[in-house]
């Protein structure tokens, strides 16, 4: 797996889950990955990944723009029964690794099955900004405190009352080309 900015959040999630992560890339590392390597949290080898690197791994993420190279890794993963996700190539993946955002105590996951990663990124960025409002974090904290004080039989009704008045006002905007023609 390379260590471009695109895969950094995925590496972070693997680390959070307790995985041992090996990053293989002949290129530059993202500063976050450099820090994890310096801290001993990520193993790193400055080289191209080889097909045999898939063998014996619990999970593999591939970040390459070379379709033939991605296909080779996919075939090897299928042969070895290794879960493999090729970034932005769901057809060369055995699973899709959706974008995840954590903001103010809320975890959101976004996926389009690989059909529209750019749209998922935009949705993720917009909702991350929306839910990063510090008031939302305080709101969730207050709800958590309330819930912890309530006996089980009273939680549903009282929590429903507590969230009454909270809502999201949203407007979808689309590019002008949508009603006129196919994407540019």
Task: Walk me through this protein's architecture.
The chain has 3 domains: 8-97, Rossmann fold, CATH 3.40.50; 98-132, 2-Layer Sandwich (Double Stranded RNA Binding Domain); 142-166, no CATH class. The protein has helices spanning 8-16, 31-38, 67-80, 117-131, 134-149, 155-163; strands spanning 21-24, 42-45, 60-62, 84-86, 99-103, 106-110. It is α/β, with parallel strands linked by helices and 184 residues long. It starts with 7 loop residues before the first helix and ends in a 21-residue tail after the last helix. It contains 6 helices and 6 strands. 39% of the residues lie in helices and 13% in strands. The longest helix is centred in the C-terminal third of the chain and has 16 residues, at 134-149. The strands form 3 sheets. A two-stranded parallel ribbon has the order 1-2. It has a two-stranded parallel ribbon with strand order 3-4. The protein is globular, with a radius of gyration of 21 Å.
């Amino acid at each position: 797996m390379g260590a471009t900015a695109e895969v950094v959040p995925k590496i972070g999630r693997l680390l959070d889950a307790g995985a041992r992560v090996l990053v293989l890339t002949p290129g530059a590392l993202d500063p976050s990955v450099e820090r994890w390597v310096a801290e001993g949290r990520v193993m790193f080898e400055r080289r191209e990944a080889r097909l045999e690197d898939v063998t014996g791994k619990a999970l593999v993420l591939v970040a390459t723009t070379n379709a033939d190279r991605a296909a080779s890794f996919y075939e090897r993963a299928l042969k070895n029964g290794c879960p493999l996700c090729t970034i932005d190539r769901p057809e060369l993946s055995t699973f899709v690794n959706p974008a995840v955002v954590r903001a103010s105590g809320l975890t959101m996951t976004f996926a389009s099955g690989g059909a529209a990663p750019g749209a998922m990124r935009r949705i993720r960025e917009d909702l991350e900004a929306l839910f990063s409002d510090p008031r939302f974090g305080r709101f969730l904290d207050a709800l958590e405190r309330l819930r912890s004080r309530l006996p089980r039989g009273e939680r549903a009704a009282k929590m429903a009352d507590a969230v009454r008045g909270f809502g999201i006002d949203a407007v979808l905007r689309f590019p002008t080309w949508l009603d006129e023609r196919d994407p540019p």
